[in-house]
Amino acid sequence: MTFELFIFYLLTAVATVSGLMMITIKNPVKAALWLILAFIATAGVWIMAQAEFLGLVLILVYVGALMVLFLFVVMMLDVNISVLKEGFTQYLPLGVMASIAIFSMMYLVVGPEHFGIDVTGEPVSNSENYNNTKSIAIPLYTTHAYAFVLAAVLLLLGIVAAISLTLRRRPTTEVLYQNIDKQVKTLATDRFRLVKMASVVEKAIPSKKEDEK
Questions:
Q1: What is the DSSP string of 184-205?
Q2: CATH code at 70?
Q3: pLDDT tens for each residue of 96-117
Q4: Which of 32, 34, 36, 137 keeps 20 to 30 A from 64, CA to CA?
Q5: By the 8 A CB rule, do 39 and 67 touch?
Q6: 124 or 105, which is more confident?
Q7: pTM of the predicted model, to two decimals?
Q8: Residue of 74 and 18 predicted with greater confidence
Q9: Which tops the pLDDT comparison, 166 or 185?
Q10: Is residue 206 assigned to a domain?
């Protein structure tokens, strides 16, 4: 066994164990940490498969941004584990069938023939001038351009829907809104007013010594 093959098996074992721990552990914060470890191990496998761009994007986007957001959300929410576990055995067969269907579709879509691997399982070696980012960008923006645009539109719709669901308008009596046009057209007489008042003469308060005399 070569050292490269040993590292590959080590990373795949770490990714598999981390994924299993993520879906079986009870604490949601620890589950998110196990998912981060699974992402890092998967990124290592992708880098070994000469997919450096995907590996770096997985670490920067998912580990560095999304998982940090997930950790903040999970730590701020009061998750009731007993409620989540209700009906687990009832829907277990349906979940197993859905998992088998998803793995079957993933194998058909992202099988070995789509990653430059021949029937014997040996990866095709690339030249020194091979650019992984360019090999992904050219088919993404040419062959799969419509699918890329459609995915971007769906993500935009999801963001707009999430913002609209969390946006709750309150009456103007409770919230003060800023009117820029009204502020610009405001004159000094609208903000400042002179009030004439009669002068008041305060009487001197006698001290204690004067009272004693």
A1: HT--HHHH---------PPPPP
A2: 1.20.120.1200
A3: 899 899 888 888 877 666 655 5
A4: 137
A5: yes
A6: 105
A7: 0.56
A8: 18
A9: 185
A10: no
CA dihedral 182, 188, 191, 195 (to 10 degrees): -160
Q: Are residues 100 and 73 in the same domain?
A: no
Tell me the residue type at 47: I
Q: What is the 3-state secondary structure (H, E, C) of 125-180?
A: CCCCCCCHHHHHHHHHHCCCHHHHHHHHHHHHHHHHHHHHHHCCCCCCCCCCCCCH
φ, ψ for residue 117, nearest 5 deg:
-110, 130
**Range(s) of the domain holding residue 98:** 88-121
Q: Are residues 76 and 22 in the same domain?
A: yes
Neighbour-count burial of 152, counting CB atoms closer than 10 A to its CB (0-12 exposed, 13-18 middle, 19+ buried)? exposed
pLDDT tens figures, 176-213:
777 888 888 888 777 777 778 777 766 666 665 555 55
Cα separation, 145 vs 142, whole angstroms: 5
Local structure of residue 87 (DSSP, 8 states)? T
List the beta bridge partners of residue 117. Answer: 123
> Other CB atoms closer than 10 Å to residue 25's CB: what's the count?
14
For the segment 87-104, the average pLDDT, to the nearest whole number, is: 83
pLDDT (mean) for 79-105: 77
